[in-house]
Design a protein that fits this description.
147 residues, mainly alpha, two-stranded parallel sheet, 5 helices, 2 strands, 61% helix, 3% strand, elongated
């Protein structure tokens, strides 16, 4: 078996191409991993701040890991258009007496109902707070639950 110079060149060329593709793929993976690690650190910091704020407000706070999974580093669904008509409609639908159909009536809800959402907005998307605060101020809320 005599290997010609052309066959050797072809093998080496193939080896170099495969090695080059592997290096490029590993570089892309490393860059993506670096970015997600940075995002995870930011998510941890924001989750710690939210848990502390909820605890200081007297609410029962979830674990930091739960907050990280739910809100990530950008607030997740909470910061996805919180001042939109649909989000406000859902909130208003939750401020009802619990009946269904014709018996459903709005109630004067406790002001703590929206405090958690305001805390999330202040930490994760502070630019949305002024308009949401304006909406909250227009609601008829009171200290209805003593605790």
């Amino acid at each position: 078996m005599n290997i010609t110079e052309n066959e050797t060149y072809q093998r080496n060329r193939t080896t170099y191409i495969v090695a080059g593709i592997a290096v490029v793929a590993l570089t892309v993976i490393a860059l993506l991993t670096f970015h997600s690690g940075k995002a995870s650190q930011q998510a941890d910091q924001k989750a710690t701040a939210l848990v502390a704020a909820l605890t200081a407000a007297g609410a029962r706070a979830p674990s930091k890991e739960q907050v990280v999974r739910l809100l990530g580093d950008d607030g997740g669904a909470v910061c996805d258009d919180p001042n939109g008509s649909l989000r406000k409609g859902i909130l208003l639908g939750q401020l009802m007496n619990g009946a269904a159909g014709p018996g459903m009536r709005p109630v004067i809800a406790d002001n703590r109902v929206v405090k958690g959402q305001l805390l999330v907005l202040k930490i994760y998307c502070p630019d949305e707070v002024p308009s949401f605060q304006e909406f909250v101020d227009s609601l008829d809320l009171a200290d209805t639950v003593k605790g």
